[in-house]
Design brief:
Elements: H1 10-34, H2 37-75, H3 77-96
Helix pairs in contact: 1-2, 2-3
Length: 97
């Protein structure tokens, strides 16, 4: 079965997908008792496919984020170093407490 790549836009759509998957998992439990195992396998495969799509979307979002950070660092290296230093100072101050 070919995997479709679907881009999600933000946290909300991922949460919606997870809620849909949770509902599908619950219906699979009911389907196992009520329907032939073939249908249950099809539903499980549909859930797996949806999880694959979500994993692909999460990977795409991660790669996009890394690319943006790299571009920012290349475009403003001094500001990036100062921001990293400031973040380190804040972290150190928090850990001392």
């Amino acid at each position: 079965m070919a995997r479709r790549r679907k881009r999600t836009n933000g946290k909300r759509s991922i949460e919606d997908e997870l809620a849909t998957i949770a509902a599908d998992v619950a219906s699979v439990g009911n389907a196992i008792g009520d329907v032939a195992s073939v249908e249950a396998r099809e539903r499980i495969q549909a859930i797996r496919d949806r999880l694959d799509e979500m994993a692909d979307a999460a990977g795409d979002a991660t790669r996009d984020g890394v690319e943006r950070v790299e571009e920012t660092i290349r475009g403003r290296p001094v500001v990036s170093v100062l921001a990293a230093f400031a973040l380190g100072m804040v972290t150190a101050a928090m850990l001392r407490r």
